[in-house]
Amino acid sequence: MLVGRNRVTPYAQPPGLPEIYAQHADFVFRNLRRFGVIESAIDDAVQDVFLVVHRRLGDFEARAQVTTWLFGIVLRVAQSYRRSAMRRRARLSDTPASDVEQVPVSTAESPIELLERREASTLLHRLLDELDDDKRAMLVCVELEQMTVPEAAESLGLNLNTAYGRLRAARATFNEAVARTQKQMAERAERAGREFQ
Length: 197
Prior knowledge:
This protein is mostly helical. The protein has eight helices and no strands. The radius of gyration is 20 Å and the shape is globular.
């Protein structure tokens, strides 16, 4: 008899669909928007994600976190919706990014702070739009959803070394986009200052 072969490690029982929906619906919504699903299709996309979850819940072995597993499903559904939108030549909605991020507003937040947060969120989504799908997915996983690189690699179906390489490339591309944007904003401010004088 071979020791250690065909041994199944017992894992915790995964939560049911109602619990997953209650705990992760905002995660699904937020990431579908981050991956460019148009506003008019967002409700259908959320429903499609949870239909996949319902069908595949029996396959989930709880070796990873539910969010890691969900992220892979969200990514594939978002890619499908974006391909469909491109075929229909649809344009991404101009929905305010504040509606996408759903960050709770504190009662102490001033209107200026709220405006600054909305502008920052809009800028973030514009910069994410400049990344290709692979880099965007890796950056969203690690930087925005705070997954570890091994968790992100698992949810994206990547080799760990590939995941680290993709994250480095994503960060470099994102930082280049940030630098370009800062330069453009500085040039606009300078032009506005000259026109004002």
